[in-house]
Amino acid sequence: MCWRRSKADPVSQVTARLIGFDPGLRRTGWGVIEQAGSRLIYVAEGVIATDESRPLAERLVALHTGLLSVLDRWAPDEAAVEESFVNMNPTSTLRLGMARGVVMLAPSERGLDVAEYAPNRIKKALVGVGHADKLQVQTMVRHLLPGALGVKADAADALAVAICHAHFRTQRVLLVESARLGA
């Protein structure tokens, strides 16, 4: 991890670059933010799309290649991925699971810790309600990250994952710091 800390106030000056992913076989959203204490800064976002006319294996390779390119370009310190929900269509669920596996593999290959968050936990962290709709989530993403005004749905969902991770990692940093000071 590449945290930069101030000796005067180690918690409020923690800085990390975080990437969130909203996995999908057709479209995988990604969003990069920086966290400096409680401040969140929009860095970048986008979508990796695969060609639906190609065989499944080729689409997974294309997804993997796209993810590695994003990771190499934006150099995050940590990654977070939205957990899959089980869908009524077993084939769609299986394909989403394969895409999600690739999404978790790529940052792991780059040596990053990968956190996972349930959709309801992400919504609750942003909106305060676990069953918020997509429009509410997008509105909160734009509110919390003023630079992310024109963000589309998949990328907004990925930024929401990164924001959720920022909230929970702050709690972990506080616990680690207090344990270090208490020891």
Provide structural commentary.
- It is a single chain.
- With 183 residues, the protein is an alpha/beta fold.
- The chain has a single domain, classed as Nucleotidyltransferase, domain 5 (2-Layer Sandwich), CATH 3.30.420.10.
- It has five helices and five strands, in the order βββαβαβααα.
- Strands 3-2-1-4-5 form a five-stranded mixed beta sheet.
- The longest helix is centred in the last third of the chain and has 30 residues, at 153-182.
- Residues 1-11 have low confidence and may be disordered.
- The rough form would be described as globular
Chain-averaged pLDDT = 88
How many individual helices? Answer: 5
Radius of gyration: 17 Å
Q: Would you count the extended β strands for me?
A: 5
Low-confidence region ranges: 1-11
Q: So, the CATH homologous superfamily?
A: Ribonuclease H-like superfamily/Ribonuclease H
The sequence of SSEs as H and E is EEEHEHEHHH
Strand content: 15-25%
Question: Roughly what percent helix?
Answer: 40-55%
Largest sheet entry: 5 strands, mixed
Structural class estimated from helices and strands:
alpha/beta
Distance between the termini: 22 Å
Q: How do the strands line up in the largest sheet?
A: 3-2-1-4-5
Query: Given this structure, which CATH class is correct?
Result: Alpha Beta
* CATH topology grouping: Nucleotidyltransferase, domain 5
Please, how many domains? 1
CATH architecture classification name: 2-Layer Sandwich
This entry's quaternary arrangement is single chain
